[in-house]
Amino acid sequence: MFPSVFAPHLGLDLTKGRPYVFSGAGSQGQRAYFFDIEIEIPGILKYGVAVGFTDAMNASRAGLLGQNGFFNQVDVGFQLRRRTFTLET
């Protein structure tokens, strides 16, 4: 899930996405718009995934990677002290 302000930079018109209402801890229902897009991590993998965009994340300007669509595609390792991460297929 990503902020809706990212969508125009990817050439996406939110009014053409598939609407979906979701909620989180303590929140009212929020609307997201989903698109089928292709993600490529050069030299590692390339795959299609449904990605949602919502106004609810605009203030953070950060995306949220999900178990389905990212973490089920690659093994991710974090080394916080080194400020690095690794991806393996």
Structure description:
- The chain is mostly beta strands and 89 residues long.
- The chain has one domain.
- The chain is built from one helix and six strands, in the order E-E-E-E-H-E-E.
- Strands 1-4-3-2 form a four-stranded mixed beta sheet, with no helix packed on it. A two-stranded antiparallel ribbon has the order 5-6.
- The chain is globular, with a radius of gyration of 15 Å.
- The mean pLDDT is 86.
Total separate domains: 1
Strand content: 35-45%
Structural class: mainly beta
Mean pLDDT: 86
DSSP summary, beta strand count: 6
> Order of strands across the widest beta sheet?
1-4-3-2
The biggest beta sheet is recorded as:
4 strands, mixed
Helix content: under 10%
Overall shape? globular
Order of helices and strands: EEEEHEE
Low-confidence stretches: none
What is Rg?
15 Å
- Termini, distance in Å? 22 Å
What's the number of helices?
Answer: 1
Q: Quick recap of the structure?
A:
This protein is 6% helix and 44% strand. The protein contains 1 helix and 6 strands, in the order ββββαββ. The model has no long low-confidence stretch (mean pLDDT 86).
